[in-house]
Amino acid sequence: MEKAAVIGAGVMGHGICELLALAGLEVTMVDIDEDILMKGMESIRWSLGKFVERRRIREEDASAALSRIRTSLNLDEAVRDVDLVVEAVPENLDLKRSIFNKLDEAAPQHAILASNTSSLSITEMARATGRPERVVGMHFFNPPMLMALVEIIRGDGTSDDTVDATVDLVEKMGKTPVVVRKDVRGFIVNRVLGAVLNEAFWAVHRGEATMEEVDAAVKYKAGFPLGAFELTDMIGLDVMYEVSNVMEEAYGEVAKACPLVEKLVKEGNLGQKTGRGFYDWKVGRPRIPFRLAGKFDVQRLYAVAVNEAARLIHEDVAGPEDIDKAMKLGTGWPSGPCEQGDKLGLDVALEKLRELHARYGEEAYRPSPLLEEYVGKGWTGRGAGRGFYEYG
Ligand SMILES: NC(=O)c1ccc[n+]([C@@H]2O[C@H](COP(=O)([O-])OP(=O)(O)OC[C@H]3O[C@@H](n4cnc5c(N)ncnc54)[C@H](O)[C@@H]3O)[C@@H](O)[C@H]2O)c1
Predict the structure, then answer these.
(1) Per residue in 219-253, pLDDT tens?
(2) What atom of ligand 1 comes closest to residue 91's alpha carbon?
(3) 78-123: per-residue pLDDT in tens?
(4) Which of 97, 146, 236, 290 has its CA 20 to 30 A from that of 111?
(5) H-helix or E-strand containing 69?
(6) Strand pairing partners for 3?
(7) Which one from 115, 118, 119, 198 is the annotated catalytic residue?
(8) Ligand 1 mean position, distance from CA 29 (Å)
(9) What is the Cα–Cα distance from 231 to 185, expressed in whole angstroms?
């Protein structure tokens, strides 16, 4: 691949351009707003400068990358002779379908059309084109320059060649690809992370713990880099709300969205970016007291993460290695849910889910058939020599 275009120069688009240019591709960054293109170029210059300053890249490589990036307001022209397009416009299926339709008409037949969507269907976008075999999901994490993971999503019609070429390119960019074998909503990371965050929201909504207690357990007991509420504030409550709705639409009661998030969104409290979300960011970063770490049962979070991982394996979306790799690189968790489940004991996780299911009657806690099967076979984890993984 030599030439690419990125459609949308916002939070994600300009970072993706920077990565592609550093990997040696000529890239055109496209937007409908000239100011955003200028800001995108400024951010790229600033970021490359920082990487040079920290001796992560050489100055001449940064200048060469910069010279490979152009900007354009004209999508048709920008994609006329490309080998790859990465779409990074706002998360709206109608908008994305119309862009894919235009791309299909304007880009050469051989070009791969990728979407950076966080939650929407790749298969649906592919249907707006005459080349579903060359449409693929390429889900970068924010900020793309710093986050090591890229989920590569196979739509129903995506060909092996397209997946292989995308994997090669991601590796060339110095990132770790994880192939998501089925086009399920939330892919891997947002499925597992969503289940854990939802558990945190519902626990507070039901009055079982305060958000500081949950966040203290998440940070100091589970060792996650950020508390659940702290992270949600940083992602943005509006983004979380949209993703939760997509997940609830796809999975029903299992992914029932928590009213806590909707309430804040309606009040206009969208998190760090508006100065107020779950926490008040005007007074600085949330202080989460260590002394509260023992007040919330962190095993509940592990149990829902393990259950979601088991569901993904059961649905043949990914295997345990890929799920663990994706969760560690995509979220900074110290271990993946399958490793964690094997360590904790799958029987312990199952018991916890049954207890929660009996107490609340919520579908979110219904154990995955795969988890039941493993425990039934005595595959309870590391101690038994077999769980999600086999131990020699
Ligand atoms: N922000 C994140 O943390 C994150 C992480 C992973 C994936 N994503 C996904 O990446 C995509 C982009 O998200 P973002 O946060 O960068 O959004 P953003 O709003 O920051 O940027 C989107 C850009 O697209 C431009 N745009 C709108 N319509 C256009 C059109 N018709 N043609 C060309 N450009 C157009 C907008 O002007 C804007 O600059 C979404 O699908 C989102 O779900 C976001």
Answers:
(1) 999 999 999 999 999 999 998 999 999 999 999 99
(2) 41
(3) 999 999 999 999 989 999 999 999 999 999 999 999 999 998 999 9
(4) 146
(5) strand 69-72
(6) 26
(7) 118
(8) 12
(9) 21
